């Protein structure tokens, strides 16, 4: 299937240049947020930090895919919904200062205030990683059950089951 075929179906083209372990980490972060599994999240933070830029890139692909999927299903999802969902998803999963940075940066990001969002991240790519993983968990569960979500994300990323 060509890139044009993917685009015409509303699916992002998987990033073939990213190693599988990066894709696995990104999907596992989404899964940890879906499950509200703080221990799993804590286990994933070191490898995610080691590959923060690549994990962030993969999460952007996943977020774009899920955003289009929500639109195609007709589920109503507004910026206010995403702000509340991200804040709820990261609540009690992160240390308070990181939870505040993620929630506040996402709030700014969701309304297009990228400069404000950047100030709250203080240039830390992991704030963006948490923002997008929490967003993907929230929006993904709006249209998929957990097992179906993770399976779909693995397919989108070009990973085997």
Automatic annotation (TrEMBL):
<protein>
    <submittedName>
        <fullName>Uncharacterized protein</fullName>
    </submittedName>
</protein>
<feature type="region of interest" description="Disordered">
    <location>
        <begin position="1"/>
        <end position="21"/>
    </location>
</feature>
